[in-house]
């Protein structure tokens, strides 16, 4: 798109060099996008590090802001406070297929998984892309998961790609968005926080962009009726700050602050789930290996991280809208890009990072 305005920058904190979740060292992201007529869907994979997540687990915790969702693996993450696989995002009807793909991949790398070694906890999040995608076709397969896993790298596309291909937000095209912030801590340390969202939520009239309530105008231009909230959003947060699972759960909860700023009220039919993990250390799966000796960040010092989470989550949602393209899918359904619908109104909000 020519002369595309820059998205507004949220907050006073500086972004990392990519302004993406991969500014947290070691984190990589990959997509498989399926765009074929009525099939508009895909898979997105977030790797917490370059090794075997089953053998070297990272601390993690989640928050269910509204539980209208069909994810797999959250219960064990809540109990044990670690990830055992990469994080996978896809559509609602493909959760089972992707979970099976994660199990197969883990067994291939660890042949004693489920025998001499413990079973693996797959972790798959979903949103319903059935407006644009023929979700009943259930075309997403193990092949697509493995391709996204193999494609994972520090640079990745945003918008209507991967799991975000068929997603909608605020009556326009949603999808994948990411952002990062650098949080200076009072003890002199500096940590990075990155967010990645699968954005599929929001009614047109609700949209607030960098504090500007443009939703009523958007609803008027889309001639949108006052339908109830039926979407969802998954918010994934990464940090290099040394935090335990309890602290990471507190971090994940603050993603709701960034989500609310965009106009969301966590509607009845919306599945709004946040998960945070730290790359500061790993927890060995093998009990014969030593546990890490890490000094955790003091609770009294975490406020800058909370700010970074809220700002990067809001920024990631804006980036999902900003990078999206108009997509046509099943039965003639289409979602226009926000910049196509509101270009004359939102260009004035464009601003550089501090």
pLDDT averaged over residues: 95
At the fourth CATH level, what is the homologous superfamily? L-amino peptidase D-ALA esterase/amidase
Distinct helical segment count = 7
Domain module count: 1
Distance between the termini: 25 Å
Percent of residues in beta strands: 25-35%
Radius of gyration: 19 Å
Helix fraction, binned, reads: 10-25%
User: What would the principal axes of the Cα set say about the shape?
Assistant: globular
Question: How would you describe the overall organization of this protein?
Answer:
The chain has 7 helices and 17 strands. It is of the alpha+beta class and 354 residues long. The protein has a single domain, classed as 4-Layer Sandwich (L-amino peptidase D-ALA esterase/amidase). Helix 2 packs across helix 3 (142-151) and helix 5 packs across helix 6 (303-323). Pfam families: Peptidase_S58. This is P1 family peptidase. Belongs to the peptidase S58 family.
């Amino acid at each position: 798109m020519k002369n595309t305005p820059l998205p507004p920058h949220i907050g006073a904190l500086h972004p990392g060099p990519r302004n993406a979740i991969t500014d947290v060292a070691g984190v990589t992201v990959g997509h498989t996008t399926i765009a074929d007529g009525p099939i508009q869907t895909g898979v997105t994979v977030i790797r917490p590090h370059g090794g075997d997540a089953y053998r070297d687990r990272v601390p993690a915790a989640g928050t269910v802001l509204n539980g209208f969702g069909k994810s797999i693996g959250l219960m064990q993450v809540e109990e044990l406070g670690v990830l055992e696989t990469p994080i996978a995002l896809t559509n609602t009807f493909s959760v089972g297929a992707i979970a099976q793909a994660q199990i197969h991949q883990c067994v291939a790398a660890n042949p004693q998984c489920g025998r001499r070694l413990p079973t693996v906890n797959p972790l798959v999040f979903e949103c319903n892309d059935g407006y644009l995608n023929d979700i009943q076709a259930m075309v997403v397969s193990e092949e697509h998961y493995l391709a996204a896993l193999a494609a994972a790298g520090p640079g990745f596309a945003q918008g209507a790609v991967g799991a975000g291909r068929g997603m909608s937000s605020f009556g326009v095209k949603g999808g994948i968005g990411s952002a990062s912030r650098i949080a200076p801590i009072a003890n002199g340390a500096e940590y990075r926080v990155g967010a990645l969202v699968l954005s599929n939520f929001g009614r047109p009239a609700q949209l607030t962009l960098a504090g500007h309530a443009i939703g009523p105008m958007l609803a008027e231009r889309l001639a949108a009726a006052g339908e109830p909230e039926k979407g969802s959003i998954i918010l994934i947060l990464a940090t290099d700050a040394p935090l335990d699972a309890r602290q990471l759960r507190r971090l994940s909860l603050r993603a709701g602050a960034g989500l609310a700023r965009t106009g969301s009220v966590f509607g009845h039919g919306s599945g709004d789930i946040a998960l945070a993990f730290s790359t500061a250390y790993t927890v060995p799966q093998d009990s014969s290996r030593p546990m890490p000796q890490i000094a955790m960040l003091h609770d009294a010092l975490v406020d800058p991280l909370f700010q970074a989470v809220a700002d990067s989550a809001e920024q990631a949602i804006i980036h999902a809208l900003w990078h999206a393209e108009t997509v046509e899918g099943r039965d003639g359904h289409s979602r226009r890009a926000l910049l196509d619908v509101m270009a004359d109104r939102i260009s004035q909000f464009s601003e550089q990072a501090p």
